[in-house]
Amino acid sequence: MDASKFVIIDKSTLIDTEPVRQSLTYWQDAWRRLKKHKPAIAGLIGVIFIILFGFAGPLLSSVSYSDQDVDFANLPPVLNLYQMDEDIYVFLTNDYKLIQVSRSGMVLEKYKRIEQDPVNKIYTYANAARDIEVVLDFSYNLLPGKMDSPYDYTLTYNNSVVTESTRRVLNKKYPFGSDIVGRNLLIRVMYGARISLTVAFVASLVNLFIGVFYGSISAYEGGRTDIIMMRIVDLLNSIPLILYVILIMVVFGNRGLWTMIIALGSVYWVVMARLVRGQVLSLKEQEFVLAARALGVSRNKIIRNHLIPNAIGPIIVSMTMMIPSAVFTESFISFIGLGVSAPMASWGTLANDALSGLLSYPYQLFFPSLAIAVTMLSFNMLGDGLRDALDPRLRKG
Amino acid sequence: MGRYFFRRFLYSLLTIWLIASVTFFMMHAIPGGPFTREKAIPDEILRVIEAKYNLDAPLYEQYFDYLKGLVTFDLGPSFQKVGTSVNDLIVAGFPNTAKVGFFAILAIIVIGVPVGIVSALKQNKPLDYIVMFGATLGVTIPSFVIATVYIYIFAGKLGWVPPFGLRNAVSYIGPMIALSGYSLSFVARLTRSSMLEILRADYIQTARANGLSEYSVIAKHAVKNAVIPVITYLGPTIAAIMTGSFVVERIFAIPGIGRYFVESVTNRDYTTIMAVTVLYATIYVFMVLLVDIAYALVDPRIRFEKEKA
Amino acid sequence: MNNILLEVSNLRTSFYSHLGEIQAVRGASFQLEKGKVLGIVGESGSGKSVSALSVMGLIQEPGKVKEGSVINFLGRDLTSLSNKAMSKIRGNDISMIFQDPMTSLNPVYSIENQMVEVIQRHQTITKKAAKERAVEMLKLVGIPQPEKRIKNYPHQFSGGMRQRVMIATALSCNPQLLIADEPTTALDVTIQAQILELMKDLKTRISTSIIIITHDLGVIAEICDNIVVMYGGTIMETGTEQDIFYNPQNPYTVGLHQSIPKMNVDEKARLVPIKGSPPDLLHPPIGCPFAGRCPHAMQICLEEQPPTFSISENHTSACWLLHEDAPKVGDYITAEVVSE
Questions:
Q1: Which residue among B174, B306, C103, C276 is buried most deeply as judged by most CB within 10 Å?
Q2: How far, in Å, CA of A319 to CA of A58, rounded?
Q3: pLDDT of the residue at B302
């Protein structure tokens, strides 16, 4: 053995290998943790997207949510075109309207029906300039003599007969299709996002304020006041709250944005009040607050460094969770016909409007529903991530 | 225990009375009254109608009549469906609502809880991911979307089920899926996270250290603890089923009280609105009471706490 | 050698996290004779609890007892048994009680339910007989009115009483070995003394061998026959109670002694903390795990893990200071290497 290795070393020459962790503020740490949570980031992107979609989207378009064009009612987002001539493409609707569409999918003109023969099921259409005439025979598989035909229609233009749709294009004018009176569904869904998000956000804020106010007073006052205030909350909690949202909507009668906000905001604060009370109560008793006080930390510093970081996390998380559930509730109430009234339509109203034509025009339901689902999913994923990121008890590594 | 639940029962009655009162005064606070129309009704006719429904009596008299009616289960005539009493509507509609609701709750418990448990046991395995993906979708899609998509596919495109009504056993499937979808997904998620937490509990390690079989460790020691939070969620579940019945009965055209409620709300049929609100609230309050009893039965800590109180 | 109940050799247990392999136990060897009490001492993260859980076969995913580890219990290698076979041994031949009695009993079942289940799992007897046995055990561990109390639920017992219930359950099938993992740490000081008293008492009344795991040398002072000192997943020193308390041959053991308060010494004597913190088991040191904190660390301590030196028949220590080339510090004597 090398004897030199058996000399006691001077510890002061050794570098302290104990890792020094960078100290982070509460928010830096929360953001760092949130960034690691992939679903939460996806949720955050989703939320930002939905907000931009609703608030910036309509600005990019000159079309208004109420502009309608009955000629172009119930057009789907994907058009199956019949090529009549080199650059004449037409789209045939379920109710035998013939619409000229450009090769790239721009809706151009509804042809006028100039002759109709309902008995033999032959219609003749012409454009406004009367230089194009198309004959539609939709008797195949309908009239007794023409059963078992491989196609349902023939379209005749300039003696050339077309039996099959040869081109599928996306509807350029109405990317989400058009509704029953020919309004642009994309714009409607965008405005729906405005309505739904505004209602949800403002109602959640109202809930937040009432809840924080009520909950903290209850917890601070303690004693009898606390007991009575919490009894009231218990009582409200033992009622199916949605019934009251509905009743409030009925009582107010008018179906404005604010009625909906008042209805949602005046009822769901109960949850927040409980949460805040629980937070304040438990924090008041915690040793670290006591310890800080014993060390002579100023009251403001205790509030800023100890109480807020510990209480605000759960409050923000439950706020994030409240927004999607308000969207849900709002869409639900709108769906049963009590929502924000026409022509301003929330997603629930749009879904409700689509119900009657569901079997023929399923896309009218699909897009508002998709918007609701994306919003729910985004906020929920973000909320889950925030819960992990903002709960200091889970802080590690 | 007995005394606690007797007190809880009285408290429930008090709650129902409060709900009934609030509902009554809210409905009477509506400006104009039930027969106000856009097209004005001549005054004489309006007075005759109001006299017929006792609406010209002082408010307190109407209130006591209403309370008396609730206690004696005489809910008065429907304002809009002439010749029909609210009792008739409820007798006709309640069985349908109850049947569908019962099956939905059954599905939530019988499917949601085991799925959550299995998912927790297979944490981070493909099965777990699939279940959680489905459950996450389930809590993001509103019941009216599930219902309409179901009808579109199975009634419209495939023609496997009747598009509306409760004609045969198959026709229950759609309403059941639509009603239970959200809560089932929620319960599965809740059970999973609760189960994961319980599996890390010290007493699970104790059970293993005492040599209990893995089956007993999971089925006896973990599951009973894991379902406690699920039981507390049953109250909100019942509320969700009730409100779900509003849209699901409308979409599937089921003649239940949920549909009558929505119709009465749009028609301003005030007696029906009041009666159905109170009925729903009563069912809910007593369901919550039942949930509380179940909760105390499962968790001895709650049981003894209640006894002391 | 027939007297050996448990012989653990070269135990290696690791946990595989997303950060990498955390080597909680890195080659621990110790043995326990029948009827004796063994104390395993070390601070948190020293690997003492993981060693015990390895013996019990209770290492859960993502942890694993590595190949080459041998846990010989009465001639059987427990590492080779299936979980099912191990579950027949657990609670029957080897029992274990845990640190926190408040959370170690299932809150939703009565004591009777939990004890009877364990007894009936390992013995084919009637429910009635099992209950009688449970009552008898509760009496043994000093629970007043056991016939009545057995109907109670865990939350109706105090912490000390719950730990007694845990001990009663653990001993109900007459195990050959009882492992007590920090049995008093979570209890109030007075209750701690009572539980220790109980264990001392049980030691004289039953034939079960005991392993007590603790971070507190004071806990095991009077009760143990032999003591194992663990640090950084390795064994630093083993010896009889006398050896460890009065003739420690490892700077870490000395450090442990200096950091506990004593009643009867010079008032001016201060407690000497062991400076620094335990090694990172994700990247365990190449040399002696204690080198970074050791006041006598030498170059070799950083480069090579010390072999185990034998000081007397039962007394061993893994420390380079015992090497013949090492400088003499304090009372350390040189010893011969028993394993390299």
A1: B174
A2: 27
A3: 78
Determine the Cα angle at A315 with ends A314 and A321, to 5°: 90
Identify the CA nearest to B185 among candidates B147, B247, B124, B130.
B130
C90 touches chain B (CB under 8 A): yes
Average confidence (pLDDT) over A6-10: 74
Within a domain: B151: yes
Please calculate the CA angle C296-C300-C302 and round it to the nearest 5 degrees: 80
Whether B285 maps to a domain, the answer reads: no
Does some domain include residue B131? yes
Distance from CA of A88 to the nearest CA of B (A): 32
pLDDT given at position B34:
61
Give DSSP secondary structure letters for C69-80: -EEEETTEEGGG
Q: Cα dist. C89→C11, C55, C96, C307 in Å? A: 19, 11, 11, 34
Mutation for testing the A interface, residue in C298, C321, C337 having most A CBs under 10 Å: C298
User: Of A8-12, A175-179, C159-163, C277-281, where does mean pLDDT reach its minimum?
Assistant: A8-12
Instruction: Give B120's Cβ-side CA count (13 Å radius).
Output: 26
CA neighbor of C73 nearest in space, from C87, C50, C91, C56:
C56
> pTM of the predicted model, to two decimals?
0.83
Could you list the residue range(s) of the whole structural domain that residue B206 is in?
93-256
The rounded distance, in Å, linking the Cα atoms of B146 and A323 is: 21
pLDDT tens readout for residues C22-74: 899 999 999 999 989 999 998 888 889 999 999 999 998 888 999 889 999 99
Domains: count for chain B: 1
Q: Tell me the CATH number at B182.
A: 1.10.3720.10
Cβ-based contacts of B19 with chain A (< 8 Å): 239
